[in-house]
Amino acid sequence: MPKPGIHPKWYGEAKVICNGEVVTTVGSTRPEIHVEVWSGNHPFYTGTQKIIDTEGRVDRFLRKYGMLEAEDEQAADAQEK
């Protein structure tokens, strides 16, 4: 039996609210839980996830810091030999 007066109130049917809509109920110490993202609107779970072009980012980084030209020159020197 819990000690009286030291435990928070338990809400067995606490509402989870996303964008003004009740999306589910859970047990919690708060009567309402406001969230921005949940599995029903997260891109990974809904299949609308975008693929990030990491290769373009790497090339842009190498060009920005002058490393791409150095690699191209080394490759050209290796082909000449």
Write up this protein.
This protein has helices at 43-46, 54-64, 67-80; strands at residues 11-18, 21-28, 32-35. 36% of the residues lie in helices and 25% in strands. Strand 1 and strand 2 form a beta hairpin. The longest helix has 14 residues, at 67-80. The chain is built from three helices and three strands. The protein has a three-stranded mixed beta sheet, with no helix packed on it. The protein has 81 residues and is an alpha+beta fold. The chain folds into two domains: 1-50, Irregular (Rhinovirus 14, subunit 4), CATH 4.10.80.400; 51-81.
Question: Topology, pairings included?
Answer:
Blueprint: E1 11-18, E2 21-28, E3 32-35, H1 43-46, H2 54-64, H3 67-80
Function: Binds the 23S rRNA.
Subunit structure: Part of the 50S ribosomal subunit.
GO molecular function, one term: rRNA binding
Task: Give short descriptive properties of this protein.
alpha+beta; 2 domains; 3-stranded mixed beta sheet; elongated; rRNA-binding; Ribosomal_bL28/bL31-like_sf; structural constituent of ribosome; ribosomal protein; rRNA binding
